[in-house]
Amino acid sequence: MAIVKKLPLVEGERRRLEIISPATMEAIGEIEVLTKDDVTAALGRARIAQKSWAKLSFKERAAYMLRALDVLVAKQDEYIEVILKDTPKTRNEALAMDIYTAMDSLLYYAKKAEKYLKPEKRPLHGLGGMMKKLEIHYKPLGVIGVVSPWNAPFILSLNPAIQALMGGNAVLIKPSSATPFAGGLVGKLFEEAGLPKDLVTIVQGDSSTGQALLEVGVDKISFTGSEGIGRHVGITCAEQFIPCSLELGGKNPYIVCADADLDRAAAGAVAGNFLNAGQYCGGNEICYVEKSAATEFIALVKARVTALRQSVSGDFDVGALYTADQLKLVEEQVADAIAKGATVVAGGRRNPALEGLYFEPTVLTDVTEEMRIVSEETFGPVMSIIAVDSIDALVDSINASNYGLTASVWSKDVAKAKRIALSIDTGCLDVNAFACSYGTAEAPFGGRKNSGIGQVNGPSGLRSFC
């Protein structure tokens, strides 16, 4: 059930990969694997293009972003079809996660980059202020390498590219080999918008191509993906003294106080857990609910989850897992939880009615800390619910996690919810909402501990490309 299949090597030609849909298990296309020499050549061309691009004003750079926006508005249905061919998302997910967020990012940074990156004059203290003047100037780093993941290949390739471009940089983008066509749309979009040649280059291939991008001498790496590969990226960049941002995994807690609006909290829990079949880093994976509200909350969640539709085509709510390895991991974690006493409230198995990589939308209760489903990132359509005596006593346990990307707290007492949220060691926090941080352009997004380093988005994310 490989999603990426190596094709027989033809003498004198590059290696090729066949890409297989995780939903239908049918081949959807092929890509060539670019070599280190190819990536080196692309970097050389990008350096030449970047020099002219850096001389443009913010208004001139913004004009290209707005042209790209016009292209995306006009051709959104065409782009959605490519995304859906390459990924097992629902149409609504492709529209909301990829297309809308992309449009918003293009418009936002076209409007705001000059404000965030214009030279600043800062007053100096003491005698220095009488004798000297200080100016801060944001200069482009040069060429940025973007390594994007398979779970949101279009937006997670495009969004950092927009910020890098508005900062005056050129960009080399390496999409996941599992989703090369959706990631490759970014190159098509900027080409159709008339961006100068070689300023944005897509370098397709496998892990060897990604490794080449790390080694050829770009000026920064923006990486989104797994903790293990992120650690390798960080070490490789450190050895070359290149800056990097690493947006990695999370075991994001979803905390429901007894005084929360339970129906709304249940709706948020289901939406936040099963979006993209649970395969996005900011989604909630573990739900903690106060015991006095647990029975009602679980019933509300069960009613919503059992109504979710899973299919290959037509109108449905939950798609497939993207890779066979991911499906295997989810199966193992759920089996481990059941063996250790977890109760299956909904789902709990691979969907027997569908041929592709489908795992049923699953809810587990009676979950305990020694289960893998609690300590490991799941990245799948599984919600684990733990009833707790006290939310305040829970914080230390949450903070003992190796992850710290997002957290969500629900209570009608907003001041209390904010107090609880701020006590959690995580990069992004939501109160009476779920996974809002990445889609909010003003908000810097990044994690703590094994969830990564650095930030994208907002003023600090944009400036990190300078």
Describe this structure in words.
The structure is a single chain. The strands form five sheets. The protein has a seven-stranded mixed β-sheet, sandwiched between helices. A six-stranded mixed β-sheet has the order 8-7-6-9-10-20, sandwiched between helices. The radius of gyration is 23 Å and the shape is globular. The chain contains 16 helices and 20 strands. It is α/β, with parallel strands linked by helices and 466 residues long.
Lay out the secondary structure.
Blueprint: E1 4-6, E2 16-20, E3 27-32, H1 36-54, H2 58-74, H3 76-86, H4 91-117, E4 120-122, H5 128-131, E5 134-136, E6 143-147, H6 155-166, E7 170-174, H7 180-192, E8 200-202, H8 207-215, E9 220-224, H9 227-240, E10 244-247, E11 252-256, H10 262-274, E12 284-290, H11 291-306, H12 324-339, E13 343-346, E14 362-365, H13 372-375, E15 382-388, H14 391-399, E16 403-404, E17 406-410, H15 414-422, E18 428-431, E19 448-449, E20 452-453, H16 458-463
Parallel strand pairs: 6-7, 6-9, 7-8, 9-10, 11-12, 11-17, 12-15, 14-15, 17-18
Antiparallel strand pairs: 1-2, 2-3, 4-5, 10-20, 13-14, 16-19
Helix pairs in contact: 2-4, 3-4, 3-7, 4-6, 10-11
